Amino acid sequence: MGRSLRLIRVSDREAEFREFVAARMEPLRGLAYLTCGDWQLAEDAVLAALPKLYAKWNRIDNHDAYARTAVVRAAIDETRRPWWRRERAHSDALPERAEPDSTQAVHDRLQMRSALRQLPARQRAVLVLRFLEGLSVEQTAAALGCPQGTVKVYTARGLATLRHIMGADLEAPYATL
Amino acid sequence: MRLSELLEEARADAPPSRLHVDDLVAAGRRRVRRRNTGWAIAAVVVVATAIGVPQILTRPAALPAAAPTATPTATGTVEPGKFSFTPAFRGYSAGDYTVGEPTAMSLGWTSARIREGGQEVGLLSVYPPGVERIPEDGATKIDTEPIDGRDAYFLRLKTGGEHLVWKLADGGTGQVGDSGTLSLAQMRKIAEGFAVGGGTPLRTALTAGYIPDGYRLFAASDLRARFVTEAKIEEILARPDREHAPGVVRNLISIELEPVLPGARTESTEKPRCTEDIVACFVLVADGRYSLVVSGQGVQPAELRKIFESVVIADPAKPSTWKAVDEAYPTFVLPELN
Known about the structure:
Shape of chain B: globular
Strand content of chain B: 25-35%
Largest sheet of chain B: 15 strands, antiparallel
Oligomer: heterodimer
Radius of gyration of chain A: 18 Å
Order of helices and strands of chain B: HHHEEEEEEEEEHEEEEHEEEEHEEH
Number of domains of chain B: 2
Distance between the termini of chain A: 56 Å
Largest sheet of chain A: none
Structural class of chain B: alpha+beta
Number of helices of chain B: 7
Number of helices of chain A: 8
Distance between the termini of chain B: 50 Å
Largest interface: A-B, 69 and 74 residues
C-alpha cells in the first residue's frame, strides 16, 4: 500500500514536472541566456537547475520562483567556471552572429545583447529579474541571496551603463531606487 | 523604448534547444536516485555529453588556404623568459579512471579530461605554484584527509556537485571537479594517482602564420587559441589568479574549430566568408565536421581576414598530425614572463 502511494506520488511529480518544463523551459533558457550571455552555457544552467526542482517538487510551493532563482544562480556560476567553460564564456563575449536583417527588432536585439555584455553577470541578473521578470528589490535580493542594498546599487549601475550605451531615452518604469 | 521590451527582444531568436523534457526528467531521476543512495552530485556533465556540444548557427563546407595539411613537429624549445604551453603533468590511470593528456592551458591553469570507459566524467585542473584558484561563490568547504601528505578539502558548490582541491608536491594546486557522477571517494582516488612532472608540450590542430603585432597567446587548447594584447597579458600575469579582471576584454582574437553536429545549425559554409559588421570569418573544414571561426574584438576586419587566411588545419580527429602550441603561431606571441 505504502509503495503504491509512493509510486503514485512519483508519477504525479513526473507528470507535473513535465508539464512545467514544457511550458517554462524556453523562458528559463532565455533568462539564463540574458544572465550569462551564451546560449550553450544557458542550457547548461537550465540542466544544472531543473533536476533540483524535480527532486524537490513535492516540497516546493512556488515552482516558478524556485526554478527562476536556481536558473539565474546557475547561469551566474556558469560564467565563473575556471576551465574551458570559462574560456568559452569569455570568447562568447565576442559579438554574436545574426542572420542579415535590417529590421528594427534585430537592431534592438543585437544592441541590447551587446550592451548587456558590458555588465558583470550579477548586474545583468539584477536587471533581468527586475525589469523582465518584474520582481521587486526584495524579491530580487532573495533570489540572488544578496542584500537589498546591493540590488539597488546594481540596478543603478546597470541602468546607467545601459543608458549610456543604448541612449538616454531608455525607459525603466520600475526603477524606484 | 521600455527596458522590459528590449530585454524580451534580446532573448528572442534563440537557437534550437538541445534540451528536451526527457533529458531534464532523466537528470532529475538520477539526482533523486543518487540522493537516495547516498551519492552527492548533480547530473550535469553526463547529460550534457550525451546531448552533444556545439550549437552555433547553420550551414555546411572548405577552406581557402586552410586545409588539413599540417605536419607533426617535434618538441621545440622556447626562448628563456617566455611562457611555454607545456603542462606540468601527463595523463595517467587511476583504477577505472583515465586522466587524458592535458588538452587546454592558459597562463593560470591546465586541464585534462577524466574518463571512465570512454565517457567523460570530470575534469582535472592544475594551477601552477603561486597561482590562486578562482574561488566559487558560496561554495562550502568540507575537510578531508590529506592527499599524499598534503592539505586537501572538498568544495560543495551552490549549484550542486563538488570539487576536490589539494596541494601538489611542487606547491601548485590540483582540482578534480564537478562531474556529475563521481563520488567523493572516487575523486580522492583520482587525486591520489596524480604526480607532477613528465609533461610534454600541449598540442593543437590549429596553426596560424599571421597574428598582428602586439598580440600574445593567452590560452590554447586542442581546438582553440585566444590572443590578447601584450598590455593585457602583463595585467593578467600581475593578478594572483592569472585571469582577466572582471569586465570586457577590448582587444581579443579567437581562432576556433567548432565541431558541427548532424542537424546542428552553423554559421559556416563551404565557401569561406568574412563579415565586417561583426568582425568574424567562417568556413566549414574537415569534410564539414568542423567549423573554423576566427573572430575578433577591437581588430580591423582586414587584419582578421589576414589571420583567417593564414590558418592551417590538421585533422582534428588525428592528434598525431597536430603541432605543439609553442610552435603553432609566430614565436613572438608567447608571453614574456619577466
